[in-house]
Amino acid sequence: MSERDQAPASELRLGVVGVGQRAPMAALANRSGIARIVSCADPDPRGQDDARRLFGADVAIHDRYERMLDDDLDAVFVLTPDQLHTQPALFFLAAGIAVFVEKPLAITVADCDALLGAAFSSRSRLYVGHNLRHLPMLRRMRELIDDGAIGRVRAVWCRHFVGHGGDYYFKDWHAERANTTGLLLQKGAHDLDVIHWLAGGYTRSVVAYGALAVYGDNPRRTAQDAAPHGQRMPDWFDPDIWPPAALRDLNPVIDVEDLSMMLAQLDNGVLASYQQCHFTPDYWRNYTVIGDEGRLENLGDGIDGDPATINVWNRRRSGYRSDADHSIPLTSPSDGLHGGADQALVEEFLRFATTGGPTETSPIAAREAVAAAVAATTSLRANGTPVSVPELAPEVLRYFEEHQRTATLARGTRQMDPLTPQGDR
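Above: the chain's sequence. Below: its structure in token form.
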């Protein structure tokens, strides 16, 4: 009897391409009677060792993802570095296998559109890992907006204080444009997707400024021929090293910005701003949403067990008011990846890979986050020149509107998801 014959009939057979820092998320899918990781591909011996540690001694190990087709898969997680997402995702979509792509979907608009086109042509299921849509704090903010707590949304602001930016993004491949386009995309795709989600629209025009303000002057680089092979961020991260100029062993090539600011105009008239700094002493996101009847914002983001509070102001007073009209404290599980958002993300993907249907995440929204970030990066490197965001091919857009609407839209919430055509708003 084959291994497949021994497994429960309903159990999904899953693969993982790229067993690196995000691989523990895929381990959440290993659930007896529901799904199993049975196949992995990673050319690095450390990745292959981690595959056995995370998924068991019986998992099939390959050095090339093409060989995973022999393992009779139902779905795959593509968890490679960003610049390597496209080819394996295209390969498995063409084979009719459901694909989970870690965010960002890709590092160019052309690659995003190629992936959406492949899912459209093959009718294969494509899912993108924008886990913040499952973060309790942001879901509560979205619910408050949908319930009319601040009236109609007119502006969304996001400040992202990336306190560990030097360790997380300037000691490895993230520091190079060739691998990320820029950190406004690699790190910012998360936040831009949330801005779009809270605002109910997509960016169509941007202006931006940015700089390599701190890490570019640091002379403590690792020589290219002496760079340690197989190391990952947890191997070198030390939160006690401060200020940022004290960091050592930075990537030999650093050509991405560590400070970025963008302004955006959305297709529904909402205005948005996004600021990202990689050398602050604190690490969290602050979202402010302003409507025509009030505003709300979060203090703390509830990630990794940190406390979070959403404050709502909708009565007029003079001066700053710390006593908000409504204050909603939130708690997230301290033992859950990203405040439990990763678990919810994986559960949704397993359901989607099995039966399809609405999802909280959206391939269209993932593409639009990348497109906005690419446009903003182009603008900031052209000294703030306004840049338009290209729109997706109409037939591809219609396909996802008809076959993969988001769950929030399917529930009939008051403020429609951006997948709703303009004429239906």
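The chain is about 30% helix and 20% strand.
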